[in-house]
């Protein structure tokens, strides 16, 4: 009896590990990426943000020193302020414009695909290209400002890229041009997912269209809004190449953003500790957006 | 914004399905059309407002493209005279030639062509490797479930939200230890790593929808892991491979950050070189050359966008995760 149990369990134990061996071997790149890069890399950066690393990463403990220095650096404070202003405004504008466009596109219009193609093409372009085009359009000597002045309004001033106090709006204009098409597309997908009967019922009840949108359709589109929010928000935190191309962070440091701060301190100022601390703060910022969402999404229907 | 969806496969799947409804409005049998109220006579106030607003916005969206093209076809004297919106009085292709072959970045003056070929040499292997690995991941996850697989997958998806800046430096160290920091091989690996979450999600969801009977029949016939992948899954899944292809080619071509961090000046991709040409502080600014260079850099993704149409929309629905 004992011997039979042994003989059945013994070959079984290695077979658990070697079951699906090919699948496991084939997944090695994924496992390495998940563990070494995503998990390991993140932990590594967070740990080293508590050290006094400068040119090279060193495990010399410095406590919260890097963070104290970070929050005492004017350039970082400007970066955070810019991110807040840019983030809030680009969320509001891209959602409002994206939704209104999607609602208009949803009115059984002609040329729908032509309009969609036009609204979405900037999304295919890189941030560098976007930044450079808008740098040219907003050039005070030749661009929009000059055009309006030539039309007779000679005192007209609109030079966001050369005015410290409004430069972030210049970047906002460019990023809305690039990204609103995506929001529109996601919203349109959401609108198409709403049952035709809802519209029929609302019409029968004589509810005006704007009311139907505001009190019936939008609440029904909650999942789409949340998905879009997460996408847009995590993109906002990462904004980097757009700023580099459009203003290089200038004038002065007026359009600096956190992602650029990280890059500059890691690879140019050779102050790794600052870079690590700043990137850890970025990670926390994303976590503030993503964790509650993930909790809601996954908390609701247990784990898979 | 390129920003980057969802660790929630279900939401993603519905979104992608929805995108299809957006992409081709009439699907056979299904009334997937818009939900607004019925169309009335052609010139009602309502229609005027709708088409009016859409047209104005469309013009606004097209202006930058128009200005880019127009500027790149003018000579510098004409640009200095004035209006950026005015069509060129005298069309010249010189700025294009200069942008391609002799614009200066720092020390070398061989134009954007160098960056273009670098980008090609980066994009081709990165696209192939990332799609190959991600499709195998998705296949293993969907059809050969193994213990721990879902855990690694979850880490991967959560990782898609971590700002790249957090992982950049550890990767520099790893690549340096491997002796491939600053090489195209290194950059290819980086693109494969960061393309993995979204592509794996894409393939996993797609392969999960392949009828299980097919898979079982193949196993009964004695096909193994690789046999089923090459002979059944791959040929059956060409559409999703095309979506992944579009996603990766545009994404990698448009990348700037990884190019700056993981390559050296002589292997900089086109985006980085473009930025260096336009934002270089020395010399007189040649706006026409700059705009020609900008169009040249945007041309590859634009062509892909206009040619692929509906598939691109599908791709971004999935690719939006990347931000």
TrEMBL record, chain A:
Annotated SUPFAM superfamilies: MetI-like
Membrane topology field: Multi-pass membrane protein
Chaperone in keyword set: no
Compartments, as annotated in UniProt: Cell membrane
Chain ranges of the ABC transmembrane type-1 domain: 80-295
Primary location recorded for the protein, binned into one broad class: membrane
Transmembrane segments: 21-47, 83-105, 117-137, 166-191, 212-237, 276-296
Record's keyword terms, sorted: Cell membrane, Membrane, Transmembrane, Transmembrane helix, Transport
InterPro entries named among the record's database cross-references: ABC_transporter_permease, MetI-like, MetI-like_sf
Family: Belongs to the binding-protein-dependent transport system permease family.
Protein name, as recorded: Sugar ABC transporter permease
Naturally occurring in which organism (per UniProt): Mesorhizobium liriopis
